[in-house]
Structures are given as structure tokens and as C-alpha cells.
Amino acid sequence: DSAAAYSRYLELRPQDDAARRERGFDFARAHETHSAMIDLEAYVARHPGDGIGYFELAVAEIFEDRPKAVTLVTKAIQLDPTLYDARYTRGVMNLEDGKAQAAIPDFELCLEKEPQNLRVLAHLGEAYLATGRNRDALEVLRRARQLAPDSRLVLVRYGQALEKVGRKKQAAEVLAELNQSGGYDQQLLHQVDPADYLNSSAAGQGAG
Length: 208
Fold this sequence. Notes:
Blueprint: H1 2-12, H2 17-29, H3 33-46, H4 51-61, H5 66-79, H6 84-96, H7 100-113, H8 118-130, H9 134-147, H10 152-164, H11 168-180, H12 200-203
């Protein structure tokens, strides 16, 4: 795997801090928290001005120390306000922690950068719903549905938005479509893996 490849490389180039950081991030995404911490804490200590290091360390901390993860990802954004992967992760954590209003600016900035990003659209729609911005939610979730018409999570949120703006007939049609597709598992609402907190660009490769 990727972490193993980095390990082989680091045997030859032990002073390559960026490679060590990326190995740590691979460990974090694989939920190998202890190994991730060793690499990422060392990197941040040596490179305190690098926002990417703080972001990747935050991902490692999500299931270990949630308040620390929020602090770290906020530090990453302070160091580099254009680190959109960090903004996305902070937005998801805030949304999950019941702080939808705080999540909205991060998601909106991410959407400006990637207007067709399904994850951002879905989460922004959820945040709008949670703060009573139902028509805004309907618009972004409509866009999400166009991108992924078979996404059960998007269908659920889109149906909720239709219901809240009074379009009950359409909401019922969406619910029927959802049931035909196999129903809805409440577990879809919950993040259970580090990758669930990552934007698509960071989920499959290093943030840097």
C-alpha cells in the first residue's frame, strides 16, 4: 500500500519530511492513529508554519480528541486560508457537532472553488436546512441531485427541502423514489471513518 511504499522510500531518504508527513496522512486515513501521530506530530514540530501538517494531524485526531482536531484544523486554515480541504473537514465536524451556522461559510467557500463537488453540495444543503434556509437548501440539493440522481443521501435531503418549502407532492414522489431504490439507512448520516471527513481531493491522495 501507499504507506508501505513511503516506508521503503524513507529507509533511503530518512530526511524527507514531506514524505514522512504523507505517510502519516496515509496512516490517518487508514485509521492507524498511533502510527499517524508519530509522523504528523514530528512534522508539525519541525514545520510549524505549514498548514497542511496541521490539517493532516487534525484528521488523525478526529476520533481520538475531537476538540483538539477542531483546534488543529482551525490553525491550518489560519496559516493557509486557501486550504479548502481543511475548510471542508472543519465544516463536516461543525455540522456533525450541531454547529451548522459555523459550517456554512466553509462549505460556501469550498463550493466557490468546486461548484460541481457533490459532497460539498450535499453538506451545504444539510447546513442550510438546519438553519432554516430552506430555499437555499433546495437549490444546492437540486444541483446535487443532478450530479448524483441515485444518491440515497441526496434524495433524503432533497425530499426534506421540498417538504419544508411546502412542495409536499414532489417530496412524496422523492420519498417513493427513495423506497424503490432500497430505502434509507440512518447510518448514512453519520461519519464512521476518517475518509468521511475528507473532501474527494484529500480522500484519495495527500493534501499536498
